Amino acid sequence: MTEEIIIAGFGGQGVLMMGKIIAYAGIMQNYEVSWMPSYGPEMRGGTANVTVIVSDERISSPILNEYDTAIILNQPSLDKFEKTVKPGGILIYDPNGILRHPERKDISIYKIPATEEAAKLGLTKIFNMMVLGGFLKIKPILSVESVIKGIEKSLPKRHHKLIPQNKEAILKGMEIIKLV
Amino acid sequence: MSEVKLMKGNEAFAEALIRAGTDAYFGYPITPQSEVVEYLMSQKPYETTGMVVLQCESEVAAINMCYGGAGAGFKVATSSSSPGISLKQEGISYLAGAELPALILNVARGGPGLGTIQPAQSDYFQATKGGGHGDYRLFVLAPSSVQEMADFVPLAFDVAFKYRNPAMILSDGIIGQMMEKVTLFEPIPRRSLEQIEKECPWATTGKKPNRERNIITSLDLDPISQEKHVMKLKEKYEKMQAELRYEEINTDDAEYLIVAYGSSARICHKVVSIARKQGLKVGLLRPITLFPFPYKRINELANKVKHILVTELSLGQMVEDVKLAVEGKVPVYFYGRTGGAIYTPVEILEYLKTKL
Amino acid sequence: MITYKDIIKPENLVYRRTPLLTQKTLSFCPGCGHGTVHRLIMEVVEEMNIQQDTIGIAPVGCSVLAYEFMDIDMQQAAHGRATALATALSRLMPNKYVFTYQGDGDLAAIGTAETIHACNRGENFIIIFINNGIYGMTGGQMAPTTIPDMITTTSPYGRDTKIMGNPLKITELVAQLPGTCYVTRQSVHTPNNVRKTKKAIRNAFEYIKQKKGTCFIEVVSNCPSGWRMTPLQANKWMEENMFKHYPLGDLKVPSNENVKQ
User: Are B178 and B313 in the same domain?
Assistant: First the structure.
C-alpha cells in the first residue's frame, strides 16, 4: 500500500497540520511516512501545500509529479493541482470560495463543505479536521483511533482538551462529504 | 533506549546533537534551517546534559565560537544555509588549518547571492573542494533521509576527532524541512574535562605542569615549515579515503546508471522504480560521502553500463567528479534544475529516455 | 671583598623576570608597549598561581605571536574574532580564566560586532585592548582609533574626519553595556602607569574569578615605527595628543565600588 497525497490551501488553514496528523497516524500503524511542505516567507494567507506519503515500503522520492489524492482548500490550489491527480485518483475539495469547479472526468471528485459546516457549528479553527474526516471516509487507510493518537502527538499538551472536539469534527466530515 | 519519532530533518539533527554528547552548538537563524536552534532552545539541553546552546550575533561569530570550543577539545557544532555557510568559510579554513574537529551542517538553498530559500545542491564545490582559502578538505556526508540527518551526527564527530578535521553534513531544504519517521539512537554522555584532556592532549584546557603549553594556530610564517604542514594535511586526506561510503540500488544488471546524492538520490530512487516497471534497466549509485568520493566504484560501473546520468539540483557540480571517475569510458549526461526549482521523477525519466 | 654572589640573594631581589614569559626574545619594535603588557599579564597569572587555568587568545595584528611569548595554553584567532573564541571557552570551562589580547584594528574595526555582543552578553572573560591608533603590523595604516589629523600611510595628509570618519571610542561604548563589569583605560609609558595597569589587570582577573562579567582594559599605547618617531618622541606625542581623545582612568567598576572619572 502506498498513498501519495497533496494537501493545498491558504496558509493558516491548517494544511501542514493536517498532513502532520496523517503522517503521525501512519507511524501509529507502523507505516513509513514522509511529509514534505512547501515553505516560504508567508506565515499566514500565502499558499501552502504539503506532500504526504504513507506506505508499507521504504519511501523514495518525497517530491512527486502526481498524486493518488489531492485535498484542495482554495482556488489557486485547485488550478494548480487538479491536473496532478493520477487517472482514477481522488480529488477532495471545499467549495467555499471556489468559482471554477474541478472538471476532470477520469478521477473521482468529492465535495466537502467544511468551511460552511464548521462556521455553523462554531468550529472554524478545526475545519481542517472535518476535511481530514472526509478524506478518511473515502480512503480508510488509517483508523480514527490512529488519527486521534496522531493529533495527540501533533498538538502541544495545553491543547489536548480540544481533542474531543477534533474527533467530533472528523466524524462530521465523514458525514458531509459527497461525491460530485 | 531508542525512540521512534516523526521529525523534520532539522529537528532530527538537533536532537542527535544532544544525544551525541555535543558540548556546544553555536548558530544563527536562516531559512531553511532555523528549526535547529529553535529545537535546541525548546529542549533546553543546558539544563540536562549541560550542552551550551547560543544564538550568536552572526554566522561569523558562530563558526569562530566553534573554533574556540574545538581548540579546547570539545564537541562543537554549527549549522546554517548556503549564504550563511559562505560567511563561515574563513572560519572553516582556520579550523582545517589548525586541525580542529567540528561539525558544520549546511541545509543548502538556491543561490548565488541571497538567491532563494528553496532547496538546491549548488554548494557541492564549496563543500567538497575546500570552500575557503588554502589547500584543505572537509569530510563531507550527504544525508538523503531524516534518519540520516540524525545518524550522521555521531558519525561525523567520530571522523572529525579521528582525523582532527572539520566535518560537514551537506543537506538541503528538502531533507531539512521534510518530516519522516526516525529512530533515535541512545544518548551518549558528554565527556568530562579529564576525558577530553586524555583524548585530546593538544587541547587548550590550561597548561598542566607536566606538559608544554598547547597552542592552537593556523599561522606559520616560514614557508618551508608551512609547506610541511600542508603536506601533512594532504596525507590526512588520503587516509580519510578509508571513510568512503556509498549506496547502490539495482546496479547489478543496470544498463544505465544514475549517480545522485542527498535529496536527488531520493527522487532518482523513484526514477529507478518507475523505469524498471517499464522494462528499463536503470540503477542508482548514491555517494553517501562526497569527500571522499567513490571514484573507483563509478569507474568500475562504467565498464558495464551504456551511459551514466548525473542529476543534481544545480547547473552541474558533482558531474565533474563523475566524469573524472569515468575516464571517458561511457558518455556522462547531466540533468539539473537550479535556483530552488526541483525536478520530479518523471521529468528525469523523460530526459533519460531521450538518451537511450 | 664583596662579590656578586654576596649580592644576588633572595632578600635582595627587587625584580625578576616572570618564568611565565618564555625564553623567546620579544619580536616587538623598541619602545613598543606590547612587551610590557605581555609581561604584566603573565606576572598577574603567576602571582595568582593560575597558569593551569588560564587560556589566552591572540589576535591578528602585531600581537599575533603572543603565544610565542606567554607560557600558557593559547589559541590564535581569525582577525577580529578573539571574543567569539573566548565566548566558547569561558562558557565551556566556566572555572577557567580566559582573556583576549587585541589591537585596535582587530577589536574595533573588523571585530566590532563580536566585541560589542560579547560585552553585551556579559561573557565572563577579560578583553585586553591595545590602542595605538594605527595598524602596526601591516605598516602603519589608519585605524578606527586614529585621532583627527594624525598621519598614517592611508591618511597621508592627516585623518580628515569629514572623509575618513571619526575615531571610535569603543571603550566608552562598551562601558554603556549592561554586560561589562569593569571598564578602564590605562597606559604603560611610565613606571607609575605600568603599576596602575598591572593593578587593573589583577582587578580584572579577580572579577573573573567572582564571575562578575566582561572586563575590558584599554591600554593606550604607542607605535614608534608606525608613527615614524623615536620611542621617547612617541611617548611624548601620546601624552600630548592621544590622551586628549582617550583620557586615562576607570570608566566603570563593579557596582559595589565607586566610579572614579
Answer: no
